[in-house]
């Protein structure tokens, strides 16, 4: 259990080669790292455990990761692989739950619930603040907040029906300027309709339209989302 009574999370993706590279650049042996963890942070970690971390045979927990970064004179983010979840992005920025929650104008408990479930419930202002605090692109925001599938469904409906009806719903999901979203949806709709009329290349036999199932439907959704980000230029 954590401070707020929530479940203990899996550790973030640890970059084992980076840990070894940073240690060697400082001229330290695994035993030196173990000593630093004990002397500076009170962690009883053996040299063998440090070696196991560097070989990918074990993974440090959140507290251990922060301490290891301190011993290796680096930011915690330098010891992580590419972040995907809200928690991983927060740790990459070396922010505590309360630090980030204050920047978003919410309580730590409220933010933590969203981080734990991977479902973002903040308003548009808080979403923009989250992107600034964690340095997220719009696409990273969607993935970290678990909204990729929701966006795909909205976009598939927008290109196959009346795009105007989806400007507001998409704006609630994607932290982009509403005028930009409007222009992108209009362009996507125009492109899709033109292709449908001329070559049917987006929908071949009609099996890839919104609401279809199977590989064809998933491929259609993936292409619409990819085209959305490309057209938006973000």
UniProtKB/TrEMBL annotation:
Give one Pfam family. HTH_31
Query: Which part of the chain is the HTH cro/C1-type domain?
Result: 86-141
Entry's InterPro entries? Cro/C1-type_HTH (IPR001387), Lambda_DNA-bd_dom_sf (IPR010982)
The family database entries (PROSITE patterns) matched by this protein are listed as: HTH_CROC1
Q: Which domain of life is it from?
A: Bacteria
Q: Which SMART domains match?
A: HTH_XRE
Q: What is this protein called?
A: Helix-turn-helix transcriptional regulator
Q: Which organism is it from?
A: Streptomyces durocortorensis
Question: Lineage in the entry?
Answer: Bacteria, Bacillati, Actinomycetota, Actinomycetes, Kitasatosporales
């Amino acid at each position: 259990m954590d401070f707020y009574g929530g479940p203990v999370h899996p550790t973030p993706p640890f970059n084992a080669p980076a840990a070894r590279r940073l240690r060697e650049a400082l001229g330290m042996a695994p035993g030196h790292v173990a000593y630093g963890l004990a002397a500076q942070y009170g962690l009883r970690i053996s040299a063998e455990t440090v070696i196991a971390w560097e070989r990918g045979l074990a993974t440090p927990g959140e507290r251990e990761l922060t301490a290891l970064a301190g011993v290796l004179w680096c930011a915690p983010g330098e010891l992580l692989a590419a972040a995907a979840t809200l928690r991983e992005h927060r740790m990459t920025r070396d922010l505590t739950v309360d630090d980030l929650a204050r920047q978003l104008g919410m309580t730590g408990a409220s933010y933590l619930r969203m981080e734990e479930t991977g479902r973002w419930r903040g308003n548009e202002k808080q979403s923009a603040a989250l992107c600034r605090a964690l340095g997220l692109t719009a696409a990273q925001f969607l993935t970290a907040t678990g909204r990729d599938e929701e966006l795909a469904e909205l976009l598939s409906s927008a290109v196959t029906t009346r795009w105007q009806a989806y400007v507001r719903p998409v704006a609630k999901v994607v932290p982009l300027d509403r005028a930009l979203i409007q222009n992108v949806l209009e362009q996507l709709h125009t492109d899709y309709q033109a292709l449908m009329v001329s070559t049917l290349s987006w929908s071949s036999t009609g099996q890839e339209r919104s609401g279809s199932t199977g590989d064809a439907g998933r491929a259609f959704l993936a292409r619409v989302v990819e085209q959305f980000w490309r057209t938006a230029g973000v």
